[in-house]
Write a structure and sequence with these properties.
single chain; 34% strand; 11 helices; Methylamine Dehydrogenase, Chain H; Rossmann fold; 2 domains; 15% helix; 8-stranded mixed sheet; alpha+beta
């Protein structure tokens, strides 16, 4: 028998402990022979990032010992603030960045008694995106140099693996510089060629970037360099060499992030770059309206890998649903694998083994291995078992926008086998807006969403125009329209659900973080659809943010607003801080004190302005947190605060 109870009051077996103490984040999956390695973010250890290894016998253990007495390794890089690939492994040799001091360290699993060795000195430089060239005794890395005046410099370096660079920094060589940004160094199988990606202001890596290739000498220094891809409006992703010496990359020259193969890299002594270039042949593998990669907010994304000499194992998205399968290198034939898992992160292979970070409609993100069509879970991100009838599964929905186009999303209805709502009541709605704004809502099982649906709240997870997964033109529709189209798409989604009779139009909240927080604040200031809002480290004053934010995104706002110069009136017109008198709905602000992307001052500005107007606003600042909360106690408090906020705002009891 189910119990009738008002929506939003249902008792749920999912609590905030499930979201922290019994949940970890999984990332940076790699394979090293028959071993599988990944980074595990642990909220119950203050957000520490732990490097784990599953050995060929199926045993999983933490890889790294203490760096020194009482200092546990925290495998994370702060390059671009968003980080990403913070370690590399090659035949048991691990190179990693330690978050607490930004130094690079080496640890040899084959000789654990040697302990952890520092490879760089203590300085205001950050390193990431490592590529080990052990035969040369070096590791390539992206360096973000904060020792210079003004903006930090970004360049490629080679770091000696013997630790000499920690004693004499002149032994760490700059092997490429001169562009605003650089990433993705990748060494050919024979170790003679290096490829990497660059871009310059005001571009982002997914708007326009370049692919470079060079031959390297025995010391790892560049001999000859050429630019393989450099086209206006074309972005390059994930260069990677095949087992036979060809170069694979992804670019969106046809409007979709498709795979390309370049052949003819045989280097001949005394040969110049022009002769080399003339022999190269590039062709697209499986041209289609599919995206085989996605915007690189972080270093080291790995959406495909070599399966064998004839096939790639790859992942791709079609309208926010991800797939995995193989593509032939000779003719580009694509074969989807029939598995009920959706890649959510890296896909990797070695010696015929295929592992990936994936989720499904009924499983939270996990590291899984696929063999002969069978899926084995190697590591789950949660230790909470959910009854199947408790899970609210994603329903893909599309709705017309008020200007005659279309937006997308996933709808989650309230679901709890123990409860049902009163017959004369419809559920309250929490509209979720992703960040980026180039990210995308996904349909995989999320404990966070189930926390809400199991209590009687409905959720639309919005893929507004500007989201990734529907091709470059759909993503670029938001250029110049940020703060307008994303707001309208969210509001039109609410109107669609009201018309469908699925939700209570008087109890509608909007929530989002970062760019999603900006959309939240903008929606409250320009729309009467929403009766509550939660902004997590959202943007209130665009001009002020442009003066304060980090290098990586310092020109990004201009692209999204359609006006690079902050003197253009649109910067003020789109800033929520200039429209606080229009915000009538109660607002909750959640912010980290150490956020370098959207500083605390942004939340304080909107709070002070709303209080001056006599509006209902609450601000909670979490000490030591950055752009996203990682400490268990803060995650728990922020979710409980948000739940209490909605119940209080809507009189749910």
């Amino acid at each position: 028998m189910t119990k009738k109870s008002p929506y939003g009051t249902w008792e749920s077996p999912i609590n905030t402990e499930d979201l922290t103490s019994r949940t970890v984040t999984l990332s940076q999956l790699r394979v090293d022979g028959q071993s599988t390695m990944w980074v595990e973010g642990r909220p119950n250890q203050g957000g520490r990032n732990v490097l784990l290894r599953r050995d060929p016998l199926g045993q999983t253990e933490e890889v790294l010992p203490m760096i020194e007495e009482s200092v546990l390794p925290d495998v994370r890089t702060r390059v671009h603030e968003y980080g990403g690939r913070a370690y590399a492994v090659h035949e048991g040799v691990v190179v990693f960045s330690h978050a607490k001091d930004d130094r690079v360290y080496r640890y040899d699993l084959n000789n654990p008694s040697d302990g952890i060795m520092p490879l760089t000195e203590l300085s205001d430089r950050r390193y990431g995106d490592f590529e080990i060239a052990e035969v040369r005794g070096i590791v390539y890395a992206v360096c973000e140099d904060h020792t210079v005046e003004g903006e930090p410099e970004n360049y490629l370096v080679s770091i000696p693996l013997d630790g000499s660079g920690a004693r004499d920094s002149s032994l760490i060589h700059r092997i490429f510089e001169g562009t605003d940004f650089v990433m993705a160094p990748t060494l050919s199988t024979d170790g003679t060629k290096l490829a990497w990606v660059t871009w310059n202001h005001p571009q982002m890596p997914w708007t326009q970037s370049q692919l470079h290739v060079a031959s390297v000498d025995f010391d790892g220094e560049i001999i000859e360099k050429m630019t393989l891809v450099d086209e206006e409006g074309v972005a390059v992703y994930e260069p990677r060499w095949t087992l036979t010496g060809d170069l694979i990359h992804v670019d969106d020259s046809n409007g979709w992030a498709n795979l390309y193969r370049t052949e003819g890299f045989e280097w001949r002594e005394n040969e110049g770059v022009n002769e080399w270039m003339n022999r190269l042949r590039t062709r697209r593998l499986h041209p289609s309206e599919r995206a085989f990669s996605h915007p690189h907010w972080q270093l080291g994304l790995h959406s495909y890998d070599n399966l064998d000499e004839e096939h790639l194992i790859c992942s791709w998205t079609e309208e926010a649903f991800w797939h995995v399968g193989t593509v032939r290198l000779d003719n580009g034939q694509l074969e989807a694998w029939d598995v009920d898992w959706w890649p959510v992160g890296n896909v990797a292979a070695d010696g015929g083994r295929v592992v990936m970070l994936a989720d499904s409609a009924t499983e939270t993100p996990a590291i899984v291995e696929i063999q002969r069509g069978e899926v084995q879970i190697l590591r789950s991100s949660t230790w909470t078992d959910l009854p199947e009838d408790l899970v609210s599964k994603a329903e893909a929905i599309d709705w017309p926008t008020s200007d005659g186009e279309e937006a997308h999303g996933f709808f989650y209805a309230p679901s709890n086998p123990e409860f049902e709502g009163p017959e004369d009541e419809l559920p309250p709605l929490i509209v979720m807006v992703h960040g980026g704004p180039t990210s995308a809502a996904r349909p995989g099982l999320s404990l966070f969403k189930q926390f809400w649906t199991s209590r009687g709240f409905a959720i639309p997870d919005v893929n507004h125009r500007g989201s990734t997964g529907w091709g470059r033109p759909f993503r670029e529709r938001l250029n110049g329209n940020w703060g307008v189209m994303d707001v309208n798409d969210a509001a039109d989604g609410v109107r669609f659900l009201v018309k469908e009779g699925k939700i209570d139009s008087n109890r509608v909240a909007i929530r989002g973080g970062s760019a999603g927080g900006f959309t939240t604040l903008s929606a409250l200031a320009t729309s009467d659809v929403f009766t509550a809002g939660t902004s997590l480290y959202g943007i209130a004053d665009l001009k002020k943010l442009a003066a304060e934010t980090h290098k990586f995104e310092s020109r990004y706002l201009g692209r999204m607003l359609g006006a690079q110069g902050p003197d253009d009136p649109v910067w003020e017109e789109r800033s929520p801080i200039t429209k606080v008198e229009n915000i009538k709905a109660p607002l909750l602000l959640l912010q980290g004190s150490e956020d370098k992307v959207v500083p605390q001052s942004q939340a304080e500005l909107i709070k002070d302005a709303l209080e001056k107007e006599g509006k209902t606003v609450e601000l909670k600042v979490y000490e030591g947190e950055g752009h996203g909360f990682v400490k268990g106690e803060n995650i728990r408090d922020s979710i409980e605060t948000e739940l209490d906020f909605y119940r209080k705002t809507w009189g749910i009891s």
